[in-house]
Every structure is written in C-alpha cells, then in structure tokens.
C-alpha cells in the first residue's frame, strides 16, 4: 500500500511539472489558426486527382483553436451575395517606420499596399514576423526578408477566433512557385504566421491555382457566421502560369478585373459591406482572350464558405 501511495505521489509531481512546462511553452509560442481548409482541400485533391500536395501551412503548435477556419463543398447561387466596391480605410496605429535599407522586394505596384500601410511598415512587420515565429527553424530552411517579395499588405479584421484588428503582410519567394507566407501584425507585434512551402499543385493542375491555405484573407471565423465585422477588407491570391495574362476575381457582387499579376502570382482585393456565402470566383485567360481556368469547374476548389 505504501508503495502505491508513493507511486501516486510521484505521478502527481510529474503531472504538475508537465502542466507548468506546457503553460510556459504556450506563453512563448503563438500559433497561427490551424489551416483546416488546406488539409481538406489537399485530401480532395488526393482522392480526385491522385496527386500529392506538399503546400501545407505550418503552425507552431498542433492545437486546433475553436472556430478554426473550415471549408464546405457544394454549389450555390451567387446572386445571394452582395459586396461593396473597395473603399479606403485608416492606416494602422503606431509610428511610421523608416524606409528599410535592405529587406524584401517591393510589390509590382504600390496599389498592393492597402489601407494606408506603407512599404516600410510592411517590411518591418515581415522582418519581425520571421524572427518572432522562427520560420527558418520551423521549415528547416533559412528564410530572410531579403529572399522575399511583398505582394500584398492589407488590414486584418479581428474575429472571435483571433480578436483585434491589425494588418496582414503576404510575401512570396521569387522562383519558388508555391512558397508563400502570411504574417499577421497587431499592435506592432507578430501575432502568427501561415506558411506554404513547395508547390501545392500537381503537374496536372490548371494554369491558375488559387492559394489553398489563404482563406483567412477573405473570410472570418466560422463562429461569426452571420455576424461578420463589416466593412471587411478581403483579398484573394494564387499563382499562375506564364501563359495566363489576365485573371478576374468575383466576390459577392463585385468583380476585380483584372487582378494584379505579380511575378507569377495573382492578387485581388476589395471591401465587403455584407457577409457572403460563396468563396471568390476565379477565372483565368490567355493572351488570345481564351478562358483557360474557371474555379467553378475546379473539383478541388470549394465554392461555398462554411
């Protein structure tokens, strides 16, 4: 009996120490929302197209927060969705950073720096994110800001899953199709990162590939369905073949035509004044004007939002 009590006491000490370690680690590492949309999308692709998807979003902890982004398949009537044309928004609070002497490459156009966010602010946020989230260690490949190109900086609207407004910085690595990261900056500090490495599309994929891990740019938490914070800054990104010369993106009743093409990526953005039920509708065209991609016929692309 004494031996049993001694064992129980040792177990209690071990459990207490383990809880303390977990709490301490949780204070150090801040995970980005778990990329459930990417996991489900990649599963669909494996079943339907027999391909291997390697563009997985990395997160610091394997903890799925309540209300993590999800996807649902199916079709719907787009006429039920409404949106407003893009409107300006106030710049993020805090001092304006000085123009960096070295760092990431600029986007194709300063029009991709939205909501009053300067390139200096976006570059500084990206650098802080890379350092704070230890991206190089996580993917076992050194990643410096100088290796990346910023293709979008836009307001990030907080929701029940990730409270508090801030801004997103989207950066890609030139010459590495599919390497993309989304940093979220709030109150001047990194609040999480979403990373895709490699090519998330097989050789059988079409000439336009909507980013399967970037739903956070155009939707809020499923917990907030029916009560999104509005107006809502949205963006849609993906990569394109060199043969594609024009991409259009429709979200709600607003169409971006053409989307920006920036070093193999398309970037579209706008502002919603009403929650929608369908994901962005993406179409791509070649130099002759022929439509070569339609997300409505892409079996790996879910039209409906959860």
How is this structure best summarized?
The protein has four helices and 13 strands. The chain has a five-stranded antiparallel beta sheet.
Describe the overall structure.
The protein is of the alpha+beta class. It has a domain at 110-294. It has four helices and 13 strands. It has helices at 2-28, 36-49, 119-132, 135-139; strands spanning 57-58, 149-156, 166-172, 180-186, 189-196, 208-210, 232-240, 244-251, 254-256, 260-262, 265-272, 281-286, 291-294. The strands form three sheets. It has a five-stranded antiparallel β-sheet with strand order 1-5-4-3-2. It has a four-stranded antiparallel β-sheet with strand order 6-7-11-10, with no helix packed on it.
Pairing-aware structural class of the strands and helices? Answer: alpha+beta
Proportion of helical residues: 10-25%
**What's the end-to-end separation, in Å?**
55 Å
Radius of gyration: 21 Å
Number of helices: 4
pLDDT averaged residue by residue: 77
- Tally of extended strands? 13
The biggest sheet, with number of strands, parallel, antiparallel or mixed sense and barrel status, is:
5 strands, antiparallel
Which ranges are low-confidence, i.e. pLDDT below 50, for 5 or more consecutive residues?
23-33, 47-100
What sort of overall outline do the alpha carbons produce when their principal axes are compared? globular
The strand line-up of the biggest sheet is 1-5-4-3-2
- Element string (H = helix, E = strand): HHEHHEEEEEEEEEEEE
Strand content is 15-25%
